[in-house]
Amino acid sequence: MIDSLHQFITTLVTQGMLPEMFQYPFVTYALIAALLTGPLLGALGTLVVVKRLAFFSEAVGHGALTGIAIGILLGEPATQPVAALFSFCLCFALLLHWVKSRTQVPYDALVGVFLAFAIALGAALLLYVAKKVNVHILENVLFGSILTVTPVDLLILAIISAISLLLALRFANQALMASLQPDLARVQGVGGEKARVTLFDYAFILLIALVTVAAVKIIGAVLVGALLLIPATTARLISRNIRQFFIRTLLISTGCCVAGVVLPMAFELPVPSGAAIVLLASTLFLSTVLLNQLKILRIA
Amino acid sequence: MGPSIILNQTGLIIGDNTLLKPANLTLEAGKLHLLTGPNGAGKSSLLRSMMGLMPHSGDIHWQWPGKASLPAYIPQLAFFDATLPVTVEDYLHASIHTRAFFLKKSKAQKQRLQSLLEKVGLQDKTQRKLGQLSGGERQRLLFARALAQDTTLWFMDEPMTGLDQDAQQTIEQLILQLKAQRCTLVMVHHDHDFVRRHADQVVVVNQGIERSGSPEQIYGASHNQDDIPARSLTVSRTSSTSEVCS
């Protein structure tokens, strides 16, 4: 199916309807990955913002440093240490959540401790690993590279996206209400059904770990947390209701992913795709803040 | 015996602190039960224990028809993040419908939302963000959410605290309507005048259930609302399932 799509795109290039860079298969793969990653991160990002878990997703993203190093040490391919990355991110997130529910330490302080630990451990292990593999391969995993996307990655992304879509259609309201008012959701339920708030918390953690792994090729492990946060934070500034908030987050996230993949190639810039995507998203956020301020000044 | 919530040696100990000494209590269906007592006496903790939100010792047994398996809960003044783009309509829709909030609402769903908001006088504030609502409006929204459930059992934790007089009156009217419909209301409340006039059962809480009974039994013939005699009373038991919240 992916080959047929690439042939179709090549035909469009031949007819002059698409730029020449699309004649290379890796560009098509990267673009499909961006089109799948953007909505996935956007959808999850809205809940990250509602649940005030921005710092949490950032910590899990940084935990990826250690996951990658462990994967390479255990003999996984340096370009794709998926099993260790996913396992470590998941264990890291579950441990953080478990400690949170059993201590009186404020959540931001707790995440700070875990974040520092993850970076320190990751840095120590990566220095050791760097002696064994080419450090540029690690850069690709940490900050994203469109050259490394394969059809298998696209399949994994498509499966995770499909699962996320089904879960969202069925449980979006329950997840939203459990985030807004967990006690009320526990007692009253949502939509006439009992809301399993704790289960949603753990499912959310699982999804963040899954998405971190799925987005690693395009955005890079370290910057996934940023893309979970920035599009939703931007959309929040310009939305009047939750539907607008959700749709605009998806559009911003997808737009930044696609532009972050295409623009460096179009302008031949030596920028990793993850960095380009996050830079674009950050610029959009700052522009939105400035425009909002100008609007306020004009009204005043 | 009719439907009821039975507390059997229910107590609450956190660390070295005894919040509630073990005690027995029966809350019968179709009545207004008011938990009262000084600040920090453990009223809210007792209410939260009944709803399963706090761990407790002893048993809390719900002897209730299936319809009330999901009770309504009105907490103290609800906090909402003022900057989140969640409107009154969004909140209510996501609370009571299963159709995902990011899909377009159907006409029937919109009509249902409008009718619920009319019941609590919020029909003109459908597009207002939660953070922009006054305290009274937030409480009314929680009532709208609970009304949608068509439940027979309500837990309320000082639902009028922090509200201005108009808002208090509106909430009081809603509570009295529920009482008139013979819903079962379990409510933490400080206003002795309200307790004396409307309660079917008064439960005096002070680090445990001190005593319970009708307002006359608790307050006696005296009109001095702060003069609560220290004697234990047995709760009368008369209720039938079919009459509850009909």
TrEMBL record, chain A:
The keyword Membrane applies. It is found in: Cell membrane; Membrane. Keywords: Membrane, Transmembrane, Transmembrane helix, Transport. Its main location: membrane. It is a multi-pass membrane protein. It comes from the Bacteria. GO terms for biological process: response to zinc ion; transmembrane transport. Coiled coil: none annotated. This is Metal ABC transporter permease. The lineage of its organism: Bacteria, Pseudomonadati, Pseudomonadota, Gammaproteobacteria, Oceanospirillales.
UniProtKB/TrEMBL annotation, chain B:
Residues 5-231 form the ABC transporter domain. It holds the Pfam family ABC_tran. InterPro entries: AAA+_ATPase, ABC_transporter-like_ATP-bd, ABC_transporter-like_CS, Metal_Ion_Import_ABC, P-loop_NTPase. Keywords: ATP-binding, Nucleotide-binding, Transport. One of its GO terms (molecular function) is ATP binding. This is Metal ABC transporter ATP-binding protein. It comes from Oceanospirillum sediminis.
